[in-house]
Please model this.
Amino acid sequence: TMQQITLFLISSLFSTYSFAQDQLVLENSAKDGKPNHDADIFIKSPMIRFEQAKRSMIFNADTKTVYSLDHKRKQYLELDKEQMKSMTSTVASVSGVVEQLKKQLEKLPPEQRAKWEEKLNKNPFSGTEQAQKNYIYTEIKSGIPCGKWTCKLIEGSKDGVKTSEIHLADYAALALESESIKALKSMGQYFSEMAQMVGAHGPQFKFDKFEGIPVLIKTFDKDGLRRTISISEAKKFTPKKETFSIPKEYEKSKIPLL
Model:
């Protein structure tokens, strides 16, 4: 899914690291669980870095390139626009094969057909376009207290069943730099497009028509609340050279799909 950075590219993009930039602190909790500090997001336009214990992701908003670091393996992946196009072609081919197989199932006995249909329906590339269309996002209410901020509530649903609640705060409320906002919007658009290509139907990819930054996202399944992701803090940080660079000892890996 994600990837990392070339040292010469990083050094050419930044001439100084002395100015304070934006940092967001993410918390993530599963059903019935307490929020845990999940990740830090560091932003110094055009670069954004997601920092987790085992993995990190760097996004370049200018080149639309993603770098994903695996700290355990000391490897990184790189995904740019051209590779995305290649992934799109791969996904389209797989989707076509899946749909052809479904038609062939009509010739099988009912029991055998049901077994294969179940397997094919689990394919993440099956029915991507229609699945995206089935999600509807509606603004429910504004002026809702949400942690440190005041939000508007967006509700996501599919086939009349609620799938998510997204609380959006104004960018200004988080006191983000204007260039940080621009970089975040660019990243959001990038991952929205990539998600549609590879068949990700999650709620986080389709509420981009609403203005604001999601500070709280709740997802639901048939049993109720499934997961909560929130921004617990927005603050400033002073970037270091290594913040947006790849360690020299990390090796570049190939993307399995390509």
Observations:
- Confidence is low (pLDDT under 50) at residues 1-19, 201-205.
- The two ends are 12 Å apart (CA to CA).
- The CA atoms of residues 183 and 238 lie 17 Å apart.
